[in-house]
């Protein structure tokens, strides 16, 4: 399935009032998938944004119907936002492009090489970590979902080479010391009391290889790692490597979760 960019009108009413008010430049740039609104403000401050050839120097500048916006000399325009949920398979890189030409999550979805919709993975999963991964071109939503302020919950299923002792579950909740500071699970439990190699952890942090490093700190080797839930999203009936578009209600729930209008 090929995904193509779609120009959309941000001024559907086309009234004298809407033409006068327009849309704030940072929101316009975010809707173009360039970056988040906060980063768009930085682009304005750096003098990299122009409207109809005139440099924008005010954050409150508004774009009106028919005007042309450029960033670093390239025209940008609003794209239809895409929200795709992938059940990430193993041996897949969570990036838009890999210099070593390894398979990426965009390859798994079937995004054309030129990525016309500007899709990117929201956050990262290790190459051999499977499970829930959101792929989108909504920079505002992605920025907030990944920002520590919003403490987005993530649940992982972990299979280890050896049994995890009950006191080690307690230790994971209390916190273990890593090279970049202490890390603790919000919740941790056995998936099956009869099989102590399998545990579930809930985290709201998202440090690099955090779960693998936490388990290594306790002397454990991970055999299998799956993200079972991200914010409100689960893989449901999706098989490994399959993906689907989010329903409008699912997108609304994500927006509400990060206080985004």
Can I get a quick summary?
With 261 residues, this protein is an alpha+beta fold. It has helices spanning 16-21, 25-31, 37-45, 105-109, 139-146, 166-174, 210-217, 248-257; strands spanning 23-24, 49-51, 54-55, 62-63, 69-71, 74-76, 83-88, 120-121, 130-136, 154-160, 176-178, 181-183, 187-192, 195-203, 222-230, 233-234, 243-245.
What can you see in these coordinates?
The chain is of the alpha+beta class and 261 residues long. It has three domains: 16-76, RNA-binding S4 domain (Structural Genomics Hypothetical 15.5 Kd Protein In mrcA-pckA Intergenic Region, Chain A, Roll); 83-148 and 234-257, Alpha-Beta Plaits (2-Layer Sandwich); 153-230, Pseudouridine synthase (2-Layer Sandwich). 24% of the residues lie in helices and 28% in strands. The protein has eight helices and 17 strands. The strands form four sheets. Strands 7, 8, 9, 10, 13, 14, 15, 16 and 17 form a nine-stranded mixed sheet that branches. The protein has a four-stranded antiparallel sheet with strand order 3-2-5-6, with no helix packed on it. Keywords: Isomerase, RNA-binding. Residues 23-84 form the RNA-binding S4 domain.
